[in-house]
Write a structure and sequence with these properties.
This protein is an alpha+beta fold and about 350 residues long. It is built from eight helices and 18 strands. The chain has a single domain, classed as Chorismate synthase AroC (Chorismate synthase, AroC fold), CATH 3.60.150.
């Protein structure tokens, strides 16, 4: 099904932006894994709306209600199901979208695909609201991965052209990833973060929005995880991360810059560390060779488009007649979704990585 992901770990996300609730069913979790629900809540609060001045005014508690799958704080072998109730919807803000699609949203193709029966309120099942249950699933998987020595973390690499420092692809540490995770605005260089916040505020004042890039690092990956040809780490990570609305591009390691390099520049020479472990001197390959983990840190970047719901008037049409019109979007929207998308990228990556590790076992 289109809203499901995984082979060994299978997640299925349900609900709509303005339905009574949203949630996820996670099947295939090993029994006996301890789940710290308070840590899950803290992780989800990083994504939750209405908590920062640069985010949407819609405020949701995003408190997960566990229906099954946990017994005495451990997985019990049954599917783990969590529901998050929607408590702060304003559906009237979307009345005009029943007939007038928003530019850069899924409204028009969804209208055709579902013959006009789609839930158009807040984007329905196509909404970024559905990343809340994704974050629940990812938070659970992150705890299991951490017990195996695997750490995932991400930061904002750029917003509106303002650049943060990149991760050192050779020497990413769990401590570095954890330090960024603790920040309200997840950047390495706080001065760059202040410039990004100013750029978001400027776009908001103009009734507009901005996009950006999120960089992910994964440490502690064993060598040889992944499957050829369509089951490689890039394939699985890309599939999971593209489930986050607004992602428009993904690259690994040197990424598109490798196309402008020579082989002698792009290749990573092998060496050994002080303990005799084989590694590479550089990490242009981003920790992945032939779809398999090389033992070096995995480095991935995801590009996010500007939030399409903006106050500025935009061109659209009345779908029933084809008559051209102007649309002013109502409702509460993020002038930049990138800060709240950081834990979403971490969550999607954690689900994909745990799935591949269990597949290997």
């Amino acid at each position: 099904m289109s809203s499901s992901f995984g082979e060994q770990i299978k997640i299925s996300i349900f609900g709509q932006s303005h339905s009574a609730g949203i949630g996820v069913v996670i099947d295939g979790l090993p029994a006996g894994e301890k789940v710290n629900l308070e840590a899950v809540r803290r992780f989800m609060q990083r994504r939750a709306p209405g908590r920062q001045k640069y985010a949407t005014a819609r405020k949701e508690a995003d408190e997960p209600e566990i229906l099954s799958g946990l017994f005495e704080d451990r997985t019990c072998g049954a599917p783990l199901c969590a529901v998050i109730h929607n408590t702060n919807t304003r559906s009237k803000d979307y009345d005009q979208l029943k007939s007038i699609p928003r530019p850069a949203h899924a409204d028009y193709p969804a209208m055709i695909r579902h013959q006009g029966y789609q839930d158009y309120r807040g984007g329905g099942h196509f909404s970024g609201r559905l990343t809340a249950p994704l974050c629940f699933a990812g938070a659970v998987c992150i705890q299991i991965l951490e017990r195996q020595g695997i750490e995932t973390g991400a930061h904002i690499l750029s917003i509106a052209g303002v650049q943060d420092r990149s991760l050192d692809a050779v020497n990413i540490t769990p401590q570095e990833l954890a330090a960024v995770r603790r920040k309200e605005f997840p950047v390495i260089d706080d001065r760059a973060g202040q410039e990004m916040i100013a750029a978001i505020a400027e776009a908001k004042a103009d009734g507009d929005s901005v996009g950006g890039i999120i960089e992910l690092g994964v440490t502690g990956m064993p060598v040889g995880i992944g499957e050829p040809m369509f089951g490689g780490i890039e394939n699985k990570l890309a599939q999971a991360v593209f489930g986050i609305p607004a992602v428009k591009g993904i690259e690994f390691g040197l990424g598109f810059a490798a196309a402008d390099s020579r082989g002698s520049q792009n290749n990573d020479g092998f060496c050994t560390d002080g303990a005799g472990n084989i590694k590479t001197r550089t990490n242009h390959h981003g920790g992945i060779l032939g779809g398999l983990s090389s033992g070096m840190p995995i480095v991935m970047r995801a590009a996010f488009k500007p939030t399409p719901s903006i106050i500025k008037e935009q061109d659209s049409v009345i779908a029933a007649s084809g008559e051209e019109t102007r649309l002013r979007i109502e409702g509460r929207h993020d002038p930049c979704i990138v800060p709240r998308a950081v834990p979403c990228v971490e969550a999607a990556a954690a689900v994909a990585i745990l799935d591949m590790i269990l597949l290997k076992k």
